[in-house]
Design a protein that fits this description.
Blueprint (H helix, E strand, L loop, with lengths): L17 E6 L10 E2 L6 E2 L3 H15 L7 E3 L7 H4 L3 H12 L6 E3 L3 H6 L2 H5 L27 E6 L2 E5 L15 H13 L25 H16 L3 E6 L17 H9 L4 E6 L6 E4 L5 E4 L12 E7 L3 E8 L4 E4 L9
Parallel strand pairs: 1-4, 4-5, 7-8, 8-9, 9-11
Antiparallel strand pairs: 1-12, 2-3, 6-7, 10-11, 12-13, 13-14
Bound molecules: zinc ion.
The site of zinc ion has 6 residues, from α4.
Length: 342
C-alpha cells in the first residue's frame, strides 16, 4: 500500500536534482514541559529550540545541501502571548534560523495569530514573500496582498507554492472588519458550539476556530499558477500549515474548505506533493490523482532523545523524503505521465 511508511534506509545511486528541508510546529516557548489539549501528548516547549538547532546543524552539513527549508508554521507557541514573550521568543527562534545557510520559507499557522496580528506578521521576518519568483507576462500569477501566498522556483521546472490557510479565519483579522464578520458567520454556520474551538457533534469537524480556509480569490490565483505550470510542464509542490486531504489527517485538523482546494489541485496535472503541519502526529496518503500528501510530525511533541525534521531529495521521477527521528522515510513517485524523461 502506498500509505505505509517505507522503513529502512533510502539508497539512491544517482545524485538528486536538488534537495530541500522540511520542519513543522516548533512552537517554542520558555516554559516547562506541558501537555496537549487532551492531555495525551507531552509538549517540550523549551527543547523545541534545541531540536531546531540540531536540524539546522544537520542541514548545514548535509552532502546534498538543501536549497531551501520549508517551515510549515506554528513557529512559537500561543502561550507566549499570555506571558508577553511573543517578540522575545520569535527573536530567539529567528536568530537560530539565521545560522542556517539555506533560505527559509515561513508558513503562517494558528499560533502565529495567537501571538501577532496579520499586519505585524506582514512586517516581520516571518514574511518571506521577498523570496518569491515572478512569471513574466503573466500578471494573473501575481498573488494579491490580501493573503500571504506566493510561488518560487528552486530548480528549473519545479515550482513551489506557499498557501495561506488562514486567509478565511477569525484569527489575526481585525474584529471590526467585514471580513471578520463573514468568517465568524461561516464558522458559526458550521459550528453551533459555544466554544468555537470544540468540534463536538460537528458533521464537519474541521470547522473550529483554530483552523481556517482559503478565499475564492486565493483559490483563483492558485488555479492561474497551476494553469501556467501545466502549460510549462512543471512539477509543483504546495506548502500550507493546514492539511487538505482527509486520508492523511485527523479530520479536525483540515482546512475549512479543503474540498475547494482539492478541486483546484485535481483539475491540473502538475501537482506532485502537498506538505502541511498542524497535526503534530504526522500522516501520509496518496490521493486518487497521484498527489502525495505529507503531514509532518511536529517538533513540539518530540522527546529530547528523538528528532522531527526531514530532507526531501528530488529526482526526475520521484521525491525521496529522508526523515529524521519521528519523521519516516518516504519514496514518492510521480504519476507515470508526470515523470520527466531526460
Ligand atoms: Zn497549527
Amino acid at each position: 500500500m502506498d500509505d505505509k511508511p517505507n522503513p529502512g534506509t533510502l539508497s539512491e545511486s544517482s545524485e538528486p536534482l536538488f534537495s530541500f528541508g522540511v520542519i513543522a510546529d516548533i512552537q517554542y516557548a520558555d516554559l516547562e514541559d506541558g501537555y496537549n489539549f487532551h492531555g495525551s501528548r507531552r509538549r517540550y516547549y523549551r527543547h523545541s529550540l534545541l531540536h531546531l538547532r540540531g536540524a539546522i546543524e544537520h542541514w548545514n552539513e548535509e552532502s546534498s545541501a538543501p536549497c531551501c527549508v520549508l517551515q510549515l508554521g506554528d513557529i512559537i507557541d500561543g502561550y507566549n502571548a499570555q506571558y508577553k514573550a511573543s517578540e522575545k521568543s520569535l527573536e530567539l527562534v529567528m536568530s537560530t534560523f539565521q545560522t542556517l545557510k539555506a533560505p527559509v520559507h515561513h508558513t503562517w499557522g494558528n499560533h502565529e495569530f495567537y501571538n501577532f496580528s496579520r499586519d505585524y506578521l506582514t512586517n516581520s521576518k516571518l514574511n518571506t514573500k521577498f523570496l518569491e519568483d515572478h512569471i513574466v507576462h503573466h500578471p494573473e500569477t501575481m498573488p494579491s496582498e490580501d493573503y500571504y501566498a506566493y510561488h518560487f522556483v528552486p530548480f528549473p521546472k519545479f515550482r513551489f507554492i506557499l498557501l495561506d490557510a488562514y486567509d478565511l479565519s477569525v484569527l489575526g483579522v481585525d474584529q471590526s472588519s467585514p471580513k471578520y464578520q463573514q468568517c465568524l458567520q461561516m464558522l458559526r454556520e458550521h459550528n453551533p458550539n459555544t466554544e468555537l474551538n470544540s468540534p463536538q457533534g460537528l458533521s464537519e469537524p474541521q470547522f473550529v476556530q483554530f483552523n481556517g480556509g482559503f478565499s475564492q480569490e486565493q483559490l483563483n490565483w492558485l488555479n492561474e499558477v497551476l494553469t501556467f505550470s501545466d502549460t510549462n510542464q512543471e512539477k509543483v509542490v504546495i506548502v500550507s500549515h493546514l492539511p487538505i486531504y482527509p486520508e492523511a489527517s485527523d479530520s479536525v485538523c483540515l482546512a475549512w474548505n479543503y474540498r475547494d482546494a482539492l478541486a483546484v489541485i485535481w483539475s491540473h496535472q502538475c501537482v506532485v506533493c502537498f506538505f502541511a503541519g498542524h497535526t503534530h502526529d504526522g500522516g501520509y496518503s496518496k490521493d486518487p490523482f497521484g498527489v502525495h500528501h505529507v503531514n509532518l510530525e511536529g517538533v513540539i511533541e518530540t522527546a529530547p532523545d528523538s528528532q522531527a525534521f526531514g530532507t526531501v531529495h528530488v529526482y526526475p521521477d520521484k521525491m525521496m523524503l529522508k526523515g529524521r527521528g519521528r519523521v519516516p522515510d518516504r519514496i514518492m513517485n510521480y504519476e507515470k505521465e508526470r515523470a520527466f524523461h531526460f
